[in-house]
Amino acid sequence: MRLVSWGVAGVVSSLVFAACATSTSTAVGPSAHRPAGTGGVVHAVPFALYTHCGIHELAYAGKYYTRVGGPLTDGQGNPPAGWDNPYQRGSLVVRATQAFFSDATGHHETFAVRPGATSFETVCS
Hints:
Elements: H1 2-21, E1 25-27, E2 41-43, E3 45-50, E4 57-60, E5 63-67, E6 87-95, E7 98-102, E8 108-113
Keywords: Signal
Signal peptide: 1-18
């Protein structure tokens, strides 16, 4: 019986270690975009932000969000200089009614949920 208990304990501790190693929780430093009230630890998910016609809106987990401050473009309907096209890879943190996008190049954008939205406001061709 004692061998079974140690074996089960070994399997459980291995699973706990593996879960911790693959967690999407990320401790962020002072230069990272961090929502207020998170205490320095946020649950971030990898995210590819569609940027082809500029930074306007995003969809995540069945909700649609629009950029706080309006669209961000180069004035010609493209993403501003320094942004990848058609997608910018980074991470997304969702907290209450806001989504926070950030990436390794230093972009930090805040999006607000559009209650009741079922599609994007703007379709980029």
